[in-house]
Design goal:
Oligomer: single chain
Number of domains: 2
Distance between the termini: 65 Å
Strand order of the largest sheet: 1-2-3
Number of strands: 5
Order of helices and strands: HHHHHHHEEEHEEHHHHHHH
Shape: globular
Helix content: 40-55%
Radius of gyration: 23 Å
Amino acid sequence: MALEPLRPDEAVELYLEDRKSELAKATQYAHSSRLGHFIRWCAEQDIDNLNELTGRTLHRYRLWRRADGDLAPPSEKSQMDTLRVFIRWCGTIDAVPADLWSKVVSPSLADGENSRDVMLDSKVADGIVEYLSTYEYASERHVTFLLIWHALLRRGAIHALDVDDYDAQEMSLSVRHRPDTETLIKNKFNGERFIALSAGTCSVLDAWIADRRPDTIDEYGRNPLVSTAQGRAHLTTIQSYVYSMTRPCEFTGECLHKRDLSECETAIDRSQSFACPSSVSPHAVRRGAITQWLNSDVPEPVVSARANVPTAVLDEHYDRRTEREKMEPQRKYLNQI
């Protein structure tokens, strides 16, 4: 079948629009960002028609991207995996040969190379909880941290929660995927679940809802659980809460990096807290929380269901226990054999 001319930028636009209904917003953004580099490379190479692409030119792109971005192997793999999916899609609309996608080479990773090791230590988390419980009880940051550390929620799930999703009597949360009103969660409908809460977490949520939660609604008339004066807390707002509260100077009053706190921009300005070398992202907090649950001998299927993470992914990406730590829980079952 004859190929039909198509510009790289137009192809990416069509691809993203075609997959809009099946990809979460975060995934759409990631694909758009990664393919943006491909568009830039095509412009530098004077490639204005995807019909010109061959396995050799795609290999040159891979080398260019590696040199241009100084990518670590996991990042290079994600870049090339996205390109392969895109090229395969282009083959379905006669923009490139149907088998060209198979010539997009993605690096193989060594065991453990695809796992990130940054996580919040449980002792640090205890210090943060103690600080928030003492000085910011039932604040937006207190609620956010507990929902990650104790409920194991992703920031997307926190963003998606409504007040009515919290059942004070049953001490539970209902995590729901609501694409029609723009609150999507990871794994979509497969990510829906009920989360059991501790009495302590419920007390904080009760106080937040009764006394401190801004009484606002979103553009769909829903009552977000984590709200701001403008409505539902945005994903970046939730992320900023975490970065700000995980700065050591925030909950200890001291800087691990020997900086003058009165002059340190990351200490003075919360919006710059992400730049603190010791602050961590929501994902790192969640990873630390999952590891803490596993260290507490909670069975993997329980952690898997609560965190909405398959056990295989749990082992590769989240379980940061040493081999010796993994061995110890076996002892409680020895007398039963």
